[in-house]
Amino acid sequence: RVDIVVQYGSPRQAIKLMQRIGRSGHREGAESLGYIITLTNIDDALESLVIARRMLHRNLEKETIYNAPLDILIYEVAGMLLEYEELSVYEIYNVLRKSFYYRSLSYESLIETLSFASSLGVISFNGERVRKTRKTRMYYYEVSMIPDVRHYLVKNVIDNTIIGQLDEDFVITSLDVGVKFLLSGSVWEVLDYDEKYVYVKPAKEALGAIPRWEGELIPVDYKVSREVGALKRRIISEGVRALTDYPCSQSTLNFVLEKIVEHYSKKKWLPSDRNVVVEVVRGKTAIIHSHLGSKGNFGLMLILSYILRKTGAEIISKSDPYKIVLQSNINIDAKYVIDELKNICEEHLEHILIENIKKSNIFKWKIYNVAKRFGAIRRDVSIRNVSKILSHYIDTPIGNEAINEVLVEKVDVKALRDFIRLLRKGKIDVTVIYSNDFSLLTSQTLSALTYYDVAVESSPYTRIVEIFKRKIGEKEVKLACLMCGSIIGRFKISEIPEYPKCNTCGSGFLTVFSPTDEVIESIIRKLRRNMKLSSPEKAVLKEEKLKADLVLRFGKAAIIALSTFGIGYRNAAKIVGKYFEDRDEFYKELIKQQILFIRTRRYWGR
């Protein structure tokens, strides 16, 4: 039995907190009892207070309802056809309209969706009658309405170790080459990814890195975020009395009062439900403190990014329930952005949102899954093809459904529309601050030095070099003499002398290869027996002789370079001389070339 439930960090929704605490005290006459342990983050503490109060007063979030989902529609039609084989479009329409979820489905939308499904071969539709095809049964039983989530192993290219795994949705929506993220207590930079691995290197700094679990966060409702903003405002005007209605310990109360008062006394500004604060830091980073909740701020982030891109800026953006972060390659004019936001016509707001949703990473994930549910692509399709899928299906029912899902799950259009209206009328104040450093409220959100009380560290380059040296020293290779054809043996690189020689003939004309490479070993054995080589084998032997020439001249340094993943003979020849000038520079150059190879190899086939 469960007597007490302990929630670590904000539950993010009152209904979630009620469900979790409700698991305790499942006995007649017993009360459910729970505690929230807040993080050392002012927004998390205030959010937890607000959610606890709202739960006690039964102010619960409304359920998210999808309106006439088109992918589910096709799946239901396929099920009907398996039973009846053929139906008129009117029969299908009448059945669907009886469902609460399809009460607003238009006849035109049904016709368009059936026609599209017919073009995929899932069903047959001639404009009046819908029939089963050979593909209908396979589609119905193979397609899942629940997204298939694959996992990707994260590989550190410096030492070739696996440091964790990421879900497919996080890879598609949040990661790209150059993006930094948090995993296993460290910050990593993405170099590339394929069907199994995400290749990374340790990042030099932590600022702006994405927590691995960020994509899984429950959205915070607009009303919760707005109340957090109101509570900040009331604490300044009322002090401790503002917290009377909120269930909290004395230590939490003291923490909240101390942080809010400390910030206000130093900065003389505070974001709230009635005051939007725009911090412009070092000209190119803007933090917009706005209490619109997760969905409202995501929508506002899309709009603000759209406004800035019109000026020619390249924008990287992030949002949470209380703030939006915009990073630009040019200086940000906050006044221009606010004026443009006020001038957005309400009738055009949704159109602007949709056009910018189409450019977002979350849209990639949605269209990827909707396309699978329509039967347009296989369940095991490569994530490398997501962009092609997007471009091919963007203006079809697949694209329309993906947009609908983003609007329902990620954007609060009403909250955003109300916010712009109040901003235009002057009922919400805007404070613009230009500074060289982040404020306390901002730094707690942006700093990746701690997250959920897990220490996160970035890696200095000297440490990266030491890890690389150790790992390359532990790597096993085979050496073979191309003078006499002897296979010398298998060695750890750290055990190889500076200038290795053949045990049989004493030559230093040695090649180095992987212990698992049976092709090279077979060619060398043929060489020893004076057997005839095929044309492909001669080409391989020519490459091995070039490698052996490097080993003859540079010894162990050449073996290290040639054994580094992604380093071929030509690059090794350019780098190997640094071994004798500056060892650290030699290893740094190997790391640099390995990273370059991983970043660019996907394009080599072109």
Give a short overview.
Helices cover 47% and strands 17% of the residues. The chain has 606 residues and is α+β, with helices and mostly antiparallel strands.
Properties at a glance:
606 residues, Arc Repressor Mutant, subunit A, 5-stranded mixed β-sheet, globular, 17% strand, alpha+beta
How is this fold's topology laid out?
Elements: E1 5-8, H1 14-21, E2 34-37, H2 42-56, H3 70-84, E3 86-88, H4 89-97, H5 107-120, E4 123-125, E5 129-132, H6 134-142, E6 151-156, E7 161-167, H7 168-174, E8 180-183, E9 186-193, E10 197-202, E11 210-211, H8 222-238, H9 250-267, E12 275-281, E13 285-289, H10 293-309, E14 315-319, E15 323-328, H11 334-342, H12 346-357, H13 361-373, H14 386-393, H15 397-410, H16 413-425, E16 429-435, H17 440-446, E17 450-451, E18 454-455, H18 461-474, E19 476-481, E20 487-492, E21 510-513, H19 518-528, H20 535-554, H21 556-562, H22 569-575, H23 583-600
Parallel strand pairs: 1-2, 6-10, 8-11, 12-16
Antiparallel strand pairs: 3-5, 4-5, 6-7, 8-9, 9-10, 12-13, 13-15, 14-15, 17-18, 19-20, 19-21
